[in-house]
Every structure is written in C-alpha cells, then in structure tokens.
Amino acid sequence: MPDPHYPHPGRGIALAVLATACFALLDTTSQYVGGVVPVMMAVWLRFVVQAGMTAAMLYPSQGRSLFVTRAPWWQLLRGALMVTSGTVAYISLQHVPVGEFTAILMLVPLVITLLAAVLLREHVSALTWLLVAGGLTGALIVVRPKGSDLNIGMFLPLLLVVINALYQIVTSKMVKTEDPGTMHFYTGLTGLVFGTVALPWTWAPMQDPMLWLLVGLIGVFGSLGHYFMIKGYQKAPASRITPYMYTQIAFATLAGWVVFGYAPDVWTVLGIALIAVCGVLGVRAR
Fold first, then answer.
1. In degrees, to the nearest 5, what angle opens at C-alpha 248 toward C-alphas 100 and 113?
2. Residue 202 has pLDDT above 60, yes or no
3. CA–CA gap between residue 217 and residue 16 (Å, rounded)
4. Cβ contacts of residue 243 below 8 Å, gap of 6+?
C-alpha cells in the first residue's frame, strides 16, 4: 500500500541516484586536482560555490526563512564537521583510488549503528554486529597495503567514515527542528568562513584557467549532490533510498577507470562487494 506521505517514491530514488553520481564526480575531480591545488584553497573554493549556489537555488522559494535557524550552535558544529570531512576527503583522495575511497565511505550507515550502540546505548542485534564486522573487514581488504605502498594516508578514509557518521548523527538530530535547505545553506556558509580564515596561509596562484574550472566544479557537484539528496528525502523515506546509495561505488569505480585508467583487482572487488552487501543488509536488519 503506497505511503500517503510519499506518493512518488520512485522520483525520490531517482534523485538519490543522481546525487550519488554527483558525489562520485566530486571525488573524482578532487583526486584529479589533488597535489596541485592546496587543500584549504580547494576547500575554500568549493564552499564559495556551494554557499552561492545554495542561496541561488533555495532563496527564490524560501525567501528570508532560508536564513532563520533556532539552533545556531548546532549549525556551526554541523558546518565544522563538513569542513573537516571535506579536508580529510581531499587529502585521502591523494592516497586511495576514488572507487575504493567511495566503497569505504559506504561504511557510514554501519558505523552510525555502532556509535548509536556505544554512545546512545541503543540495542543492536547480533546480526547487525556481524554485518558491521563484515563491512569493516571489507574496508581492510580494500585498503590493504600493496607491496611497499603502506602509508598512513591509506587509512584516512576510515577516519573520514567516523567524521561522516558523526555528521549524520548531528543531522538526524537537527532535521527534527530545522529546515533542510537552511541546514544546507549554513553548512556552506560555515565552510566559507573557515576557508576564508585559513586562506592567507594557503593561497597559491593558479595560472591554468582549467584548474579554476575544475575546482569550481567540485563546488558545483557538491551543491547539486546535496540538493538532489534533500529533494530525494522529501519524496521517499530514508529506508527506501539508503540501499540505492551504494550505486555511488559503481559511479566512482567507472569514473576512476575512465579518468585514471585504474581497474580494481580481484581482492579489491571482493572487499567492495562485502561492504555493499553488509551495508544493504544492515539497512534491512534495522
């Protein structure tokens, strides 16, 4: 029987899949310019675009209500977590191929379950614990050191998973009282402020106009991805959308192959598959 609150869930799923494609393009572009554009400069430019695009897309429909918040300190915390996430992601993508990077990030729903059990004392079934262990095993298979390639940067995506899980927990608390568009706007604004403060120490001239375009695209892909995701959750329940988020792994792996010519080996595919299966089953097990 159709849910009267979500009369068009298929549209929500389609928007969510489109959002994952945008996120995959964001990560691929970040990896392409990584090592050339300083990290905080790239983060600043991303949030310049994100704050501007969010205001341009949402202000016409929301007006001044876009700027009204009842939780300014929570908005600041959420924005700080997003800036930290973007910074760690940019650095991580200099060490881990984009497909494997994305697969590891798909551990976030499982880690949210783990944090809920540890911090909030929520009951977690034995099956869910098994799926969390399986997902973490898959991540270790993906980031396993190959030959003499072992370095700390390979494990940064695991730190990023924890940061993103905290970001999602804060978001889940805020959506009970805050408008999603307002949250998205203040996240971009917080990133812009933090990036601007750090800019004098990180600015580096970029003579190639293509670099400006590519870094600008990071902001475009990020803004569109979050906008599509907001709209997706308005049209379909989270339980219907979450399993389709794993399409981002396919998009990212394809982008890594097209842009960088990187094809994952058998063990990497096995690790990615283990993460995806445990993640989807984890959603069903709740």
1. 80
2. yes
3. 19
4. 280, 283, 284
Q: The tokens of 134 are what?
A: 């399986």
Question: What is the spatial distance between Cα 168 and Cα 246, in angstroms, rounded to a whole number?
Answer: 16
Express each pLDDT in 22-69 by its tens digit.
Answer: 999 999 999 988 878 888 888 888 888 888 888 888 888 888 888 888
Q: Within 13 Å and on the Cβ side, how many CA atoms surround 46?
A: 31
Give the pLDDT band of residue 81 (cuts 50, 70, 90): very high
Quick one: DSSP state of residue 93? Answer: T
Burial class (CB in 10 A: 0-12, 13-18, 19+), 77: middle
Query: What's the CA gap between 286 and 272, in Å, rounded?
Result: 22
**Sole residue written with tokens 């910074």:** 87
Given a contact cutoff of 8 angstroms between Cβ atoms, the answer to whether 271 and 142 are in contact is yes
Tokens matching residue 74: 């929570």
CB atoms inside a 10 Å sphere around CB 178: 19
Taking phi first (over 0 means left), then psi (-120 to 50 degrees means alpha), and beta for anything else, what does residue 35 get? Answer: left
Distance CA 82, CA 98 (A): 19
